[in-house]
Amino acid sequence: MMTDPIADMLTRIRNANSNRAAQTKMPASRMKVGIAEALKAEGFIDGYEVQPATPSSTLVINLKYGPDGERVIRAIDRVSKPGCRKYRGARDIPRVVRGLGIYVLSTPKGIVSDRTARRENVGGEVLCKVY
User: Fold this and answer.
1) Percent of all residues in the chain with a pLDDT value above 90, rounded to a whole number
2) Nearest by Cα to 89 from 70, 69, 103, 71
3) Structural domains in the chain?
4) Helix (H) or strand (E) segment spanning residue 16
5) Number of C-beta neighbours around residue 112 at 10 A
6) Phi, psi angle pair for 45, to nearest 5°
7) Burial annotation 34-56 (CB, 10 A radius, 16+ → b, else e)
8) Contact at 8 Å (CB) between 130 and 76?
9) In the chain, % of residues over pLDDT 70
């Protein structure tokens, strides 16, 4: 039984990225699709696709690399954990690597990056940090 599916998703992305794999697959959920959408919107991944299947759908994430094969995602870490949730207000969200990275937040307006949360003046649970 998996106790933290978000951490599993981030670990699969981290492992595929370190192996320079073109894509990675995992069980899909609305939260995972939201995180993938935020990563795509900020340019950290090429795209994602949800493949319907029985009994559960599969999320396929296409990773992105630079022209010389350098990794776009240098690190991806879980911030808020099941045992210790981390919440931030819109004005309290720090910058990651002077704006080169992002925090992904779960807000009342959906799962968004820290830039979108600041623009829409909404806070929430800090899910992960990507740079």
Assistant:
1) 96
2) 103
3) 5-63 (3.30.1370.30), 76-130 (3.30.1490.10)
4) helix 5-18
5) 24
6) -130, 160
7) bbbbbbbebebbeebeeeeeeee
8) yes
9) 99
- For 93, other C-beta atoms within 10 Å of its C-beta total 20
Q: Residue 2 has what pLDDT?
A: 81
Query: In the 8-state DSSP scheme, what is residue 3?
Result: S
- State how far the Cα of 71 lies from the Cα of 53, in Å rounded to an integer: 31
Q: What is the pLDDT of residue 15?
A: 98
Say if residues 40 and 48 touch (Cβ distance below 8 Å). yes
How many Cα atoms occupy the beta-carbon half-sphere of 69 within 13 Å?
4
Count of CB atoms situated within 10 Å of the CB of 71: 13
Close Cβ partners of 17 (under 8 Å, ≥ 6 residues apart) = 63, 71, 73, 76
In the chain (131 residues long), the average pLDDT of successive 10-residue segments reads 93 97 97 98 98 95 96 97 96 94 98 97 98 97
For the record, the structure tokens of 67 come out as 């022209």
